[in-house]
Amino acid sequence: MTYKNKQLGTTILSEISNGAPCNQILSLIGYSDTIVMQVYLAERFGNIIDVLEETVNYMKVNRKSEQRLLKTLQYPLILVSIFIAMIIILNLTVIPQFQQLYTSMNIQLSSFQKTLSFFITSLPTIIVVMLIIVSMLAIIMKLIYNNLNMLNKINFVMKLPLISGYFQLFKTYFVTNELVLFYKNGITLQSIVDVYINHSSDPFRQFLGKYLLTYSEMGYGLPQILEKLKCFKPQLIKFVLQGEKRGKLEVELKLYSQILVKQIEDKAIKQTQFLQPILFLILGLFIVAIYLVIMLPMFQMMQSIK
Fold first, then answer.
1. Extents of the domains making up the chain
2. Model's pTM, two decimal places?
3. What is the pLDDT of residues 214-229, one digit of tens each?
4. What is the DSSP string of the chain?
């Protein structure tokens, strides 16, 4: 056991001896804010066994969804890694040796072959430069993002292509799951607001709590308030309205959370399937370019010897 784990164990035992509640212990262990809040609410409203069971199921579903998403993204990442490894190995070993051979034997490459050779040998530099540019843009965007208030952060991310779609799906999934847990345990909107504002360390939850409080005091209902925030899918509002009408809000939201998991997975699979043929095409063109630069001059040399 490491020193850090021993120290954590000692801290937990000390907190338990001092009468610390379960939610505080879970926070020390490193559980997410969502789990800690649900346990806090269970302790506060007296339904801890049911909430713990529901929380375990929630964690299992999230874990399975994460694993499926990572599995979907693995293949394109492997292809990209193979491509980069091929470029580096060829530039460090094969290509310099063949270039030296052709120079020593006075073999003249065509203009097209020279262009391809220059492009292949320049690819590592091009990739490094592109990575530097992308990293710099990411740092600049991160600095801009950090200086915005939460509402402007949401509006900023929603303007970014590709990212905005996933951001909206994940935020909708996040709030849908939390509302399911809240309403399943009979927790009112006022209590949700209190928990988000006073018992959460997450900036988005605190913002959402204040936003709900402000507009609920103005007479707006939950669907109208959520509709004002552009980070949630419009379908969420429909499910909330339908759930309120039937008096089974947590059931409708539970169904919608399952739909959202499928939408996230389908979106990732669709974009991965779009990328795979492009990656295969790039790899194929790269292999053809290698043939034209290395093997074709070799065949020409062998024919001239004959």
1. 49-306
2. 0.73
3. 999 998 988 999 999 8
4. --HHHHHHHHHHHHHHHTT--HHHHHHHHT--HHHHHHHHHHHHHT-HHHHHHHHHHHHHHHHHHHHHHHHHHHHHHHHHHHHHHHHHHIIIIIHHHHHHHHHHTTPPPPHHHHHHHHHHHHHHHHHHHHHHHHHHHHHHHHHHHHTS-HHHHHHHHTTSTTHHHHHHHHHHHHHHHHHHHHHHTT--HHHHHHHHHHS---HHHHHHHHHHHHHHHTT--HHHHHHHSTTS-HHHHHHHHHHHHHT-HHHHHHHHHHHHHHHHHHHHHHHHHHHHHHHHHHHHHHHHHHIIIIIHHHHHHHHHH-
